[in-house]
Design brief:
- This protein is an alpha+beta fold.
- It has a single domain, classed as Regulatory factor, effector binding domain (Multidrug-efflux Transporter 1 Regulator Bmrr, Chain A).
- The protein has a six-stranded antiparallel barrel.
- The chain is built from five helices and seven strands, in the order ααβαββαβαβββ.
- Helix content is 26%, strand content 30%.
Length: 221
C-alpha cells in the first residue's frame, strides 16, 4: 500500500495557485508548540520548537506503523510526515512592523493523520523522553484545529518578500466582499491567525525558489 501523502491527496489545501483563492479548511489534528521571538535566532525558541515537532512527528509515525503504539494490536497506515506550518502574530497588536522579528509570536505545528489519537501522541512523548533528548516535551500538545473560511495563495521566494503576496491576498479580500477574521492573542492556544505552510526546506533550496502557502482567515461582511 502506498504511503499516505496529504500534499497529493489534499491538493486543495497544499497546492493553491499563485493568485489568491477562497477555501474552507476542515478540522485537522496537529502537534502544536507555542513560542515568541525571532525565528532566525540561533538556539532560540523557534528552532527548539521545530526540533521538538519533528522528533515527535517521526516517533508517532514509526510507532503507529510498527504497531507499538495504540492498543498494541493495530498497525496503522504508513504516511509522509506533513509539512511544517506556523500561525503568526505580533506581541503588540498595535505594532505591525514585521521587520521587528523579536516581537513575533507563533504556534509552530505539524499535522497528524486522522487515525492518530491523543493516546498515541502521549505514548510518543514517553518514547522521545526515553531517548533523553534535550527537548522540553511539556511544550508540545495535541490539538484539533478547524480554521474554516480562508483566502490562501502560493508565495514564491524568500520569507522577507511575503508582504507582496499578503498585499495580493488583501486586495482579493476587499474585491470579494470579505474581511479579515483574525482572532486570538499571545494567551490563546490557537485561534485564526496569519498562517504559513512551508513546502520548501530553506537548508536545501535557494531563497528565490522557496514555496510557502500563505493563508488568512476571513468572513463575509
Amino acid at each position: 500500500m502506498d504511503k499516505i501523502d496529504y500534499k497529493k491527496t489534499c491538493k486543495e489545501l497544499y497546492a493553491p495557485g499563485y493568485e489568491p483563492s477562497l477555501i474552507k479548511v476542515p478540522a485537522m489534528n496537529f502537534i502544536m508548540v507555542n513560542g515568541c521571538g525571532n525565528p532566525n535566532e540561533e538556539d532560540g525558541e523557534y528552532p527548539k520548537a521545530v526540533a521538538l515537532l519533528y522528533a515527535l512527528s517521526y516517533t508517532v509515525k514509526m510507532g503507529s506503523k510498527s504497531g507499538s503504539f495504540g492498543t498494541g494490536k493495530d498497525i496503522f497506515p504508513d504516511y509522509v510526515v506533513p509539512p511544517l506550518e506556523g500561525l503568526w502574530w505580533m506581541r503588540d497588536e498595535n505594532d505591525f512592523d514585521f521587520t521587528k522579528k523579536e516581537r513575533f509570536c507563533w504556534i509552530s505545528m505539524i499535522r497528524l493523520p486522522e487515525f492518530i489519537t491523543e493516546e498515541i501522541f502521549q505514548q510518543a512523548k514517553q518514547e522521545v523522553k526515553k531517548k533523553k533528548l534535550d527537548l522540553d516535551l511539556d511544550k508540545a500538545r495535541f490539538e484539533m484545529f478547524e480554521e474554516g473560511l480562508c483566502v490562501h495563495c502560493m508565495h514564491s521566494g524568500p520569507y522577507d518578500s511575503e508582504p507582496a503576496t499578503v498585499a495580493k491576498i488583501g486586495r482579493y479580500i476587499i474585491d470579494n466582499g470579505l474581511v479579515n477574521d483574525f482572532e486570538g492573542n499571545i494567551f490563546s492556544p490557537s485561534g485564526r491567525k496569519h498562517h504559513e505552510i512551508y513546502l520548501s526546506d530553506p537548508r536545501k533550496v535557494k531563497p528565490e525558489a522557496m514555496r510557502t502557502i500563505l493563508r488568512h482567515p476571513v468572513r463575509y461582511k
